[in-house]
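Fill in residues.
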């Protein structure tokens, strides 16, 4: 009887003892998130836009994410001689990578395409009934880089600030991460 009690005691205590095995791959410490933010870019013409930024969806690169954003300004009247008309409009595309420093802070950097368009009439009206002036367009696209910092609260609220060299202005973002 003592042999059976001793044998069962050894079996029970040895169930938790195993060889020194290599730990299985550690799960990423970050959960996958998708953030959407509203952006304000105080360039020549104030621009407002939206940015989508998925985070931590790849297990092999758990700290990394990416983003894409679009911003546009409203039409702003140009000074042209009478009876001419004209306006300007700015648009910007932004895309890049982000890296999480902690569960709350991440840095981001990427490229930006800033397009400044000028639309104006040349003061020439065709001699026909209901003739309209001829509109001309000039467009100037400049490429640049941007870098910034995002802070994500536990509640999902996200605040970001950065600098964009294409528009030579700041990028201010507020959004929500799900």
């Amino acid at each position: 009887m003592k042999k059976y009690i001793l044998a069962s005691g050894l079996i029970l205590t040895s169930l938790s003892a195993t060889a020194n095995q290599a730990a299985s791959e550690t799960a990423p410490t970050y959960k996958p998130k998708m953030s959407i933010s509203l952006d304000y870019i105080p360039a020549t013409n104030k621009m407002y836009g939206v940015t989508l930024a998925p985070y931590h969806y790849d297990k092999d690169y758990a700290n990394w994410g990416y983003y894409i954003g679009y911003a546009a300004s409203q039409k702003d009247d140009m000074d042209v001689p009478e009876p001419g008309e004209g306006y300007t409009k700015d648009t910007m595309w932004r895309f890049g990578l982000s890296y999480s420093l902690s569960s709350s802070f991440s840095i981001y950097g990427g490229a930006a395409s800033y397009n400044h368009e000028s639309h104006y009439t040349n003061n020439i009206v065709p001699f026909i009934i209901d003739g309209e002036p001829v509109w001309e367009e000039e467009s100037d696209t400049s490429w640049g880089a941007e870098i910034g910092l995002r802070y994500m609260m536990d509640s999902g609220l996200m605040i970001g600030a950065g600098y964009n060299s294409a528009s030579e202005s700041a990028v201010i973002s507020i959004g929500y991460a799900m």
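Strands lie at 33-42, 46-55, 64-73, 76-77, 86-100, 105-121, 135-152, 157-164, 169-177.
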